[in-house]
Structures are given as structure tokens and as C-alpha cells.
TrEMBL record:
<dbReference type="InterPro" id="IPR006183">
    <property type="entry name" value="Pgluconate_DH"/>
</dbReference>
<feature type="binding site" description="in other chain">
    <location>
        <begin position="130"/>
        <end position="132"/>
    </location>
    <ligand>
        <name>substrate</name>
    </ligand>
</feature>
<feature type="binding site">
    <location>
        <begin position="76"/>
        <end position="78"/>
    </location>
    <ligand>
        <name>NADP(+)</name>
    </ligand>
</feature>
<feature type="binding site" description="in other chain">
    <location>
        <position position="289"/>
    </location>
    <ligand>
        <name>substrate</name>
    </ligand>
</feature>
<dbReference type="GO" id="GO:0004616">
    <property type="term" value="F:phosphogluconate dehydrogenase (decarboxylating) activity"/>
</dbReference>
<feature type="binding site" description="in other chain">
    <location>
        <position position="104"/>
    </location>
    <ligand>
        <name>substrate</name>
    </ligand>
</feature>
<feature type="active site" description="Proton donor">
    <location>
        <position position="191"/>
    </location>
</feature>
<feature type="domain" description="6-phosphogluconate dehydrogenase C-terminal">
    <location>
        <begin position="180"/>
        <end position="468"/>
    </location>
</feature>
<comment type="similarity">
    <text>Belongs to the 6-phosphogluconate dehydrogenase family.</text>
</comment>
<feature type="binding site">
    <location>
        <position position="452"/>
    </location>
    <ligand>
        <name>substrate</name>
    </ligand>
</feature>
<keyword id="KW-0521">NADP</keyword>
<keyword id="KW-0570">Pentose shunt</keyword>
<feature type="binding site" description="in other chain">
    <location>
        <begin position="187"/>
        <end position="188"/>
    </location>
    <ligand>
        <name>substrate</name>
    </ligand>
</feature>
<dbReference type="InterPro" id="IPR036291">
    <property type="entry name" value="NAD(P)-bd_dom_sf"/>
</dbReference>
<dbReference type="InterPro" id="IPR006113">
    <property type="entry name" value="6PGDH_Gnd/GntZ"/>
</dbReference>
<dbReference type="InterPro" id="IPR006114">
    <property type="entry name" value="6PGDH_C"/>
</dbReference>
<dbReference type="Pfam" id="PF00393">
    <property type="entry name" value="6PGD"/>
</dbReference>
């Protein structure tokens, strides 16, 4: 009789297949299953030699092939397909077994599924997995949620296949129920914002200087040697250096300028709206993608006037300014994302260790970056830091970037180059540090038309002014 599998993977499209291979390469016996059998066959034919796989044709066969307590990783499309797989597996499982959803699920669905399975004596682990297909195969960053009991079982296996930085795995127990998927959602929101900021930096370099994509690729490659070192900056240099084989033109010039999205950035913003946490950098990044896709609207607006094209400069100074603006804005959007996680953690009682999130994002995931070390240290020094912006290191970096950041945003504005990410990051920074915000006027307006009341700076209580009467004030 074949040895029972230590773990099972169902859903063998590229992410699931690579995760199964990663597990097998680490010496685990892995049961594999897919709704359509072909994928299972292909996996065994192509990669069967990499380790011990137990192919299963039906869900019943698959479940029977796994040792108890069973650990089953589900890698299918988010939404209904995930529910269908869970519904099929559940009656076949025994108490204590666990289902690990490794897809990008919406946190509300994860919370619902965890509760439903818990009532049946089963564990449900919503695990964010980042790193694309390469990461899944060679070591992703893994963000598992769910009970501590489930983590005790599945954690060592996941830590074993995750990326490692300085000898430590990029995987840790994030917190109960939806915590893991929530953190992954915010990871993706930050990913959108980081990509948008990089794209704006490229756009400025392209339109405000005489650099061509090949030169800009070198600029990014150079930045990747410094404090901006990150996977996204590294691949930006690669993409900008690419030449289209057919036309000989820069690759970036033959691709349609319409950015697509699968929805995780949007989820981050929706969650932020519900939580009342400002993440304008992430929201701008989502909207910038949406705007880019509005072909008809853009065609209708193309003739609107703007400033005359400015003189292009071969400006080293501008390149340096853009590096600073990019770094400062990047700090701001990461600060927004971490603040959102902190808010959700407090609201849902997850007790997420923010420093540990920065630590497990240092390798394997799409937003892996050198400066995550700084975020990790900042939260180690003060786990209750209200915002990363006030940490000493970041405060100094922002102080140093100030003038350059403002010059870049104003240069872009004068030239008519849209920089929603860079400028909203600066506005957030200025908004937070403002001694007084015009919100007081808004309170006055609200009280004027709706008697909504306001609080005074000099005494407790809520007040209303009789705007249409004698304009006297009374407690409300
Ligand atoms: C990751 C990525 C991944 C995401 C894709 C596509 O962490 O590996 O975030 O989960 O799905 O990058 O995202 P969009 O299609 O929404 O850009």
C-alpha cells in the first residue's frame, strides 16, 4: 500500500502545481488532485520525478490518501469555486482536519468559512501566499490565519517551504480567522501603490528629461543598488530594458497603456473605507488603473488643453529629486498599509504583530524590499507606533526628502504630468502634520445645513449654532 500523504493540494493550475512541487521537493509525500484529471496527469508526467506525489482522481480518493489530521491546501479561484471545493471536501473529512485556502480570498468570506468549518470541528486556515509562480515553487512569503492549534500543525510545513531571509522563514502565524487573508489583501494594496509610484517616476523621467527607456532602465538598476532596492524596482529595470523583437521599439512603447486588475487592490480600499482608515495612496493606485482603462473617456478628453510641453532637461538633479520623492512616497504608502492592518487588528481582535509582517515580507513576496528591515526595526522598537512616519529613521528620511519631493510634485504639475501617487502621498504627509485642518469649516457647514453639531476646542460637549435664527449657540 502506498504511504499516506503528509499533505494534499487540490487545484493544480500553475500556483497549486508549483506549491505541490515545492512541498514534494522538501521531502513531503503530497496528494494531488484537480477537478479535471488532465492537470493531475500532466503534473505527474512532467514533475513526478521531483518527489513523492500521490495522484487522486476523485475527492474521496484524495481525502483517503492523506494522513490524519489531514492538511489540504486549496488553490482555486476565489469566490464560488472555493466554496464548491470546501462543500465537496467537508463531508469526507474528520474532526481536526484542516483546509488551507491559499488563494487571494476576500476577508469576509474567510471569516464566514472559518466559522462554518469550526462548527463542524474542522480547521480553516486562510493563508495569503505571495510571490507568483516562481515564489510558489522556490519559496513564497506565506501569511496564514486561523487558530493557533491549526498553526501548530501546518506552520512547520509552511515555514519549511517559505522563502528565507537571514535564516528565518518568511512565514508566521498572523492571527485568528481572517487575519492572514486580510494582511495579504493589504500586501496587494501596497503592491498596487508601489507599482503606481514607480510608474509615475518612470513617466516623469520619460517626459521631463531626455532619457530614453534604456537609460531609465539604468536609472532603476542603479536605484536598486541603494535604499530603494526591491523586487519591483529590479523588474522595472528589466521591463524598461526590454526591446520588442518584432518592431525593435522599446517593449514599454508597444504595450497598450491600460492596466488591469483582479481586485485585491480594490478590496483593500473597500476594507479601508469600512474601517475608516485613510489609504489614499492605495486608492489612487486603484483609480489610476481604472482611469487608464477608460478608453472612451480618455479619447473624449484628449484635446483638453494643458501646459505647452516643457523643455526637456538632461537633469541629474531631477533624477536625484525623483529618487527622493519616490522613497518618501513609498514610506508613506507603506505607513498607510501598516496603519490599516493595525486598525483592523484592533477592530477584529487579531493582535497582528506588525513587525513580524514586515519581517515575512522581506523575502518571497512581490513587495519584498530592503527597507522592510527598517519597518521591522521600527515596530520592534515600539510595537504601538501610531504611524511609521514618526519613527526616527523614517522621520529623517522624510525630512531629507522634503524639498525634492515638493519640487517633483510641482514640476509634474507645471508640466501637466499626472502624479496621483506622489502628490497624494505628499498631501497625506502634510495632512497628518498640519496643526489645524480645514475640517473645522466642514463641521461648520454641516451644522449650518443639517444641525449636525460640532465640538469646540475650548470646552467639552457638542454644540449647535442657530444659523437661520439669532446665531446663538446652544448645546446639542
Ligand atoms: C502576489 C500577487 C498576486 C496578485 C497578482 C495580480 O502577491 O503574488 O499580489 O497575488 O494576484 O500580482 O494582481 P492584479 O491582477 O490585481 O494586479
Amino acid at each position: 500500500m502506498t504511504e499516506l500523504a503528509r499533505i494534499g493540494v487540490t487545484g493544480l493550475s500553475v500556483m497549486g502545481r508549483n506549491l505541490a512541487r515545492n512541498l514534494a521537493r522538501h521531502g513531503h509525500v503530497v496528494a494531488v488532485h484537480n477537478r479535471t484529471e488532465n492537470r493531475t496527469k500532466e503534473l505527474i508526467e512532467e514533475f513526478g520525478h521531483e518527489g513523492a506525489f500521490v495522484p487522486a482522481q476523485t475527492a474521496a480518493e484524495f481525502v483517503a490518501a492523506i494522513a490524519r489530521p489531514r492538511k489540504i491546501i486549496v488553490m482555486v479561484t476565489a469566490g464560488d469555486p472555493t466554496d464548491r471545493v470546501i462543500d465537496e471536501l467537508t463531508p469526507l473529512l474528520d474532526p481536526g482536519d484542516m483546509i488551507i485556502d491559499g488563494g487571494n480570498a476576500n476577508v469576509a468570506e474567510t471569516i464566514r468559512r472559518e466559522e462554518a468549518l469550526r462548527e463542524k470541528g474542522l480547521h480553516f486556515v486562510g493563508a495569503g501566499i505571495s510571490g507568483g509562480e516562481e515564489g510558489a515553487l522556490h519559496g513564497p512569503s506565506i501569511m496564514p490565519g486561523g487558530s493557533a492549534e491549526a498553526y501548530a500543525e501546518i506552520g512547520p510545513i509552511l515555514e519549511g517551504i517559505a522563502a528565507r531571509v537571514d535564516g528565518r522563514p518568511c512565514c508566521t502565524h498572523v492571527g485568528p480567522d481572517g487575519a492572514g487573508h486580510f494582511v495579504k489583501t493589504v500586501h496587494n494594496g501596497i503592491e498596487y501603490a508601489d507599482m503606481q509610484l514607480i510608474a509615475e517616476a518612470y513617466d516623469l523621467l520619460r517626459k521631463a528629461t531626455n532619457l530614453v527607456p534604456d537609460d531609465i532602465a539604468e536609472v532603476f538598476a542603479g536605484w536598486n543598488e541603494g535604499r530603494l532596492a526591491s523586487y519591483l524596482v529590479e523588474i522595472t529595470a528589466e521591463v524598461l530594458g526590454q526591446v520588442d523583437a518584432e518592431t525593435g521599439r522599446p517593449f514599454v512603447d508597444v504595450v497598450m497603456d491600460r492596466a488591469e486588475q483582479k481586485g485585491t487592490g480594490r478590496w483593500t480600499v473597500q476594507a479601508a473605507l469600512d474601517l475608516g482608515t485613510p489609504v489614499p495612496g492605495i486608492a489612487e493606485a486603484v483609480f489610476a488603473r481604472t482611469l487608464s482603462g477608460q478608453t472612451e473617456l480618455r479619447a473624449a478628453a484628449r484635446e483638453l488643453p494643458g501646459p505647452p510641453p516643457g523643455a526637456r532637461e538632461a537633469s541629474r538633479a531631477l533624477v536625484e529629486d525623483i529618487e527622493k520623492a519616490l522613497y518618501a512616497s513609498k514610506i508613506v504608502v507603506y505607513a498607510q498599509g501598516f496603519h490599516q492592518i493595525a486598525t483592523a487588528s484592533a477592530e477584529f481582535g487579531w493582535k497582528v504583530d506588525l513587525g513580524a509582517m514586515a519581517r515575512i515580507w522581506r523575502g518571497g513576496c512581490i513587495i519584498r524590499a530592503r527597507f522592510l528591515d527598517r519597518i521591522w526595526s521600527a515596530y520592534n522598537a515600539d510595537p504601538d507606533l501610531p504611524t511609521l512616519l514618526t519613527d526616527e529613521y523614517f522621520r529623517e528620511a522624510l525630512t531629507d526628502a522634503q524639498k525634492a519631493w515638493r519640487r517633483v510634485v510641482s514640476t509634474a504639475t507645471w508640466l501637466g504630468i499626472p502624479v496621483p501617487g506622489l502628490s497624494s502621498a505628499l498631501a497625506y504627509y502634510d495632512g497628518l502634520r498640519a496643526q489645524r485642518l480645514p475640517a473645522a469649516l466642514i463641521q461648520g457647514q454641516r451644522d449650518y445645513f443639517g444641525a449636525h453639531g460640532y465640538r469646540r476646542v475650548d470646552r467639552a460637549g457638542t454644540y449647535h449654532t442657530a444659523w437661520s435664527g439669532n446665531r446663538g449657540e446652544s448645546p446639542s
